[in-house]
Amino acid sequence: MLVRRLARPMLSAIFISGGIGALRHAQGHEPMTENVKPFLKKIGVPTDDMETLIRANGAVMVGAGALLAIGRLPRLSSLALLVSLVPTTATHDFWAQSDPQAKQMQQIQFFKNLGLAGGLLLAAVDTEGKPGLGYRAKMAGDSLGRSAHTAKLEARLAAANAKSALS
Fold it and tell me: Which UniProt keywords apply (predicted)?
C-alpha cells in the first residue's frame, strides 16, 4: 500500500539520522545519559562505558530504521526502535529543569518521542491486512473444535448404523 511505502521511511528517518549522530559523536551524547544511568543499573546494565552503550543504541537505530524504511521485518524493526527510544526519551528530563526555556525545549523533545513511540506501536502491530497471530490461533482452535465435534457426530452415526444393521 502506498501509505506504508511513504510512512515507513518518514518514520524511520529521525532514527537513522539520530543513530548516525550517536555513532559519530557518542562522547557528545554522554552528558545527557546521567538520567538513564540509574535505570540501567537497576536492570543490570553496566554503566562504566556509556560511550559503547550510546554507539550500540545508535547502531540499533540505524539498522532497524533502515529495515523499517525499506519494509523488511517492519514489525520487528519497529519494536527494536521502540526499545531504543526508551533511554533517549528518559534523557529529556523537563520536570527537573529550572530554566523555563530549557524546560520547554526538553518538554518538546520528550513529547516528540512519545509521538514517535505511538507511530512505532502502530507500525509494530500493522499486519498489512493479513490476519494476525491471535486471529489465526483462534481460527485454528475453532477449526479443531469443529473437527472434534464433527468426529463425535460421525462416530454416533456410525454406531447407530452398526446397531441397526445388527438388528
Answer: Membrane, Transmembrane, Transmembrane helix
Are residues 143 and 113 both part of a single domain?
no
Give yes or no: residues 6 and 44 share one domain: yes
Query: What does the radius of gyration of the chain's CA atoms come to, in whole angstroms?
Result: 26
Split the chain (167 residues) into runs of 10 and give each run's mean pLDDT. Answer: 93 97 92 84 89 95 98 96 92 88 93 96 89 75 78 84 80
Residues 108 and 166 in one domain: no
40 lies in the same domain as 102:
yes
Its domain, for residue 137, covers: 133-167
- Give Cα separations from 26 to 55, 116, 131, 147 (angstroms): 6, 22, 41, 59
The span from the CA of 164 to the CA of 158, in Å, is: 10
Grid cell listed for 151: 468426529
Residue pair 69/9 in contact (Cβ under 8 Å)? The answer is yes
Cα-based angle 37, 43, 45 (whole degrees, multiple of 5): 60
* Contact (Cβ atoms closer than 8 angstroms) between residue 117 and residue 85: yes
The model carries a pTM of: 0.74
CB 17 within 8 A of CB 78: no
